[in-house]
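Record Mercuric reductase, 469 aa.
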Amino acid sequence: MSGEQRFDAIVIGAGQAGPFLGATLVARGMKVALIEERDLGGTCVNRGCTPTKTLRKSARVAHMARRASEFGVQTGSVQVNFRAAMERMQRRVEEARSGLQAWLGQLEGLTIIKARGRLAGREGEQFVVLAGEHQLVAPKVVLNTGTRPFVPPVPGLDELPFLDNERLLALRELPSRLVIIGGGYISLEMAQIFRRLGSEVAILETGPRLTAREDEDIAAAVTGMLTAEGIEVNTGVRIERVGKADNDAGVRVQLAGGRSVDGSHLLVATGRIPNTDCLGLETVGLEVSARGYLVTNDRLETAVPGIWALGDINQRGAFTHTSYHDQDIVAENLAGGQRSAAARVGIYAMFTDPPLAHVGLYEADARKLVTEGRRISQAVHAMKDVSRAKEEGETVGKIKLLIDEDSGHFLGATMLGIQSDEIIQAIGLVMASGGTWKLVRDALPVHPTVTEFLPTIIDRRKPLTASSG
Ligand SMILES: Cc1cc2nc3c(=O)[nH]c(=O)nc-3n(C[C@H](O)[C@H](O)[C@H](O)COP(=O)(O)OP(=O)(O)OC[C@H]3O[C@@H](n4cnc5c(N)ncnc54)[C@H](O)[C@@H]3O)c2cc1C
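=>
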């Protein structure tokens, strides 16, 4: 063990919060250690957003090439070069990672340590952190250790070489038939990407519908969109065990009722668990929630003053933008600010094609408020009735808006359709600014866009009732 190194702050985990907070702190003259056991950029850059959104593009190009004749373009038969698509993805990941590495590497005052870090108690006002051969101390510790795939207790899974998001993205050959356990956003993005690249795909979801938290009609529309592309969707299944298929070459998922689903590869995408178990939290008196998450206040401070928990491990979001936003809040507060994570409106997108995007409340939440006497209206508009979507030949989906009739504020919005990931931000911005629907009505829109339809959709809103029947 080398001698004790003193810092002003220690960041454990270089995900989507820690590196950027570290950079801000060194710019303020502080001495910061950034400890990362794997790759800078964490899940997003190396195993999450960056590779999936890059591969999604190859899948979309293949899809549009197959549809080319609809647009008056002749292409001949469409062949996907899986290796080339994966190499393009890998190049993008390496470019993003090395860009981050180069930027962080030249920051004066930032020491990057490649090791697993853990807390090891206190020395007075200082926290002690161990990382490989290093013993570090600092009065401030920032935890940004993210999540890893949750492996469900399915009999037989431990004897099978199943895939998770990371192993799927490292494949060199296209699976002939990909069976996916799980019906959340990682599953569905991968299902569509691999289907479009040429795999047969079957989804097995134990819940009653895909995208469990979305409105029922939205989940149905997502299911319809995927089945229209030839993806087999099985919901409400009970998985009894998994094992090798008869020919020993693939996998078999045995379902209750005697049915089984075979595939060449099995992807398990059943959620994620926080990397808090090896952090030595007990040495400083920190506890985690029943599901292993660190509890923070709205300033993202843990129960131990001087320790912050940022990103997915604080369960205040499970996205890159929430993690990055977390560090922005802490950076400002460390400079005397008063920012709070409670003030932000939850917003996200699932990057199927077209994407599903959501902000604020769901329809079921709004209906509950109606039972409490709130006057809420809802507007629903099919994308097939939006001219820009028709012109693009991409009419799948719908737009739903929820409006509080007393205040005029948007309560939430869900959009499944072309460019929803961008359009949702118009509503997100109005919500964050405290504006009302009149702002959207009165602002001059660009034609022809999907966004220009928002005033028309708002005009057609109807009172929401307590029940959907
Ligand atoms: C397949 C997939 C696709 C996704 N797509 C999107 C998307 O399109 N949009 C979006 O917003 N989000 C997406 N996400 C989620 C997104 O990747 C995460 O929310 C994001 O990475 C934020 O995580 P984080 O900052 O909390 O930590 P992470 O990015 O998970 O990074 C944590 C880092 O800490 C390191 N670490 C852990 N323990 C230790 C330790 N003890 N010592 C040292 N280092 C440690 C890990 O190696 C890792 O590098 C996706 C995730 C997956 C899996």
